[in-house]
Amino acid sequence: MKSLRLLFKNLRYLAETDLSKLSDGVRCSLRSEMHPPSSWLQQQHNSMRGKRCFLLGCGPSLNKVDLSKLKGEIVMGVNGVALIEGLKLDYFVTVSNFFWKSHPEALRGLTCQRFIPYFLREYLESDSPTVWLNTVADREYRLLDVEKPWQFSYLPDRYIFLGGTVIFVCLQILYYLGFDEVVILGLDHDYGLDLNKTGKRGKYVDSGSLSMHFRKDYYRKGEQVHIDMHGMERAYQLSEEAFRESGRRILNASPGTKLDTFQKVDYNTLF
User: Fold this and answer.
1) Could you tell me which residues come within 8 angstroms of residue 255 by beta carbon, excluding any fewer than 6 positions away?
2) Domain co-membership, 63 together with 94
3) Nearest-CA neighbor of 265 among 142, 166, 182?
4) What tens digit of pLDDT does each residue of 130-146 get?
């Protein structure tokens, strides 16, 4: 009954859905309340063809690179990257139910283009330019009995898939914007956890037991953090395939990274 009520609410959304994606649209609409598509994203679709973007994660290796070299580059950051003094961001993404609680004012005060899920709107709404994302997340995956993450979204203006890592959300947005090349920094992929022990849905661990970020005050003390290695690796693989099949590429310039999905490059050779 609840699903039918959601479907009724989403009739306008479905009426505007590309017929080639109608099946996905119907399934999403049965599980999630869909808000109107993002007009900002639609206006910016493929506007960045021929350009590259540096995507900054939050791994400890971020401390090993000279970020001053990014002056004049297009930069997207996630979560704690918003706390780096002197770094100019063009885009910022957060989807975490954990990180914002530790640094809400910093996220509300950003002046760059933000991308944030609708479910965080009541906490992070501000005067900052923001695209509020329709997200399909873990609860929906369980009920639809599909892998996590489900797919790579080619229509993030309408719906975007969560799963494993915020980097996956970033790559769906950057693909839609049209970037030919994405260079990732701070993607160490080293959590000190055995992939086989986190399971297909991941596990919660105490933030005090982790040293996986570039600064120590990343989370509040005693925060329970969800780590999903299986979801991360599937997300990276889906992203790599999407970019490669369209003649574009994702590079990983994180020093010492343990992720082999993306081509590894030396950061200093890119300038």
Assistant:
1) 61, 64, 65, 267
2) yes
3) 182
4) 999 998 876 655 555 56
